[in-house]
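hi! just following up on the protien thing from before. the input was this:
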Amino acid sequence: GGGGGGGGGGDLPVLYHVNDKEKQKLTLVNYRIRYGYFIADRVFDHARLQYSAKEYVDILPKKTAAEARDF
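and the predicted 3d structure came back as:
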């Protein structure tokens, strides 16, 4: 069920730091949105935007061209 909201803008995701060294332990991180960018209060390698219990997006650093290249 469930109808689509849309346009509300009130449902912002929760931002977590994902600690890969500690069994993917999640730590809540404060953030704000400015000029369409998410600005977190800290720097980390692995972040997660949690939209709901089942919906989330993991954010990881992009590999550089050198790392991605296959020799």
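Confidence is low (pLDDT under 50) at residues 2-8.
Residues 45 and 63 are 12 Å apart (CA to CA).
cheers
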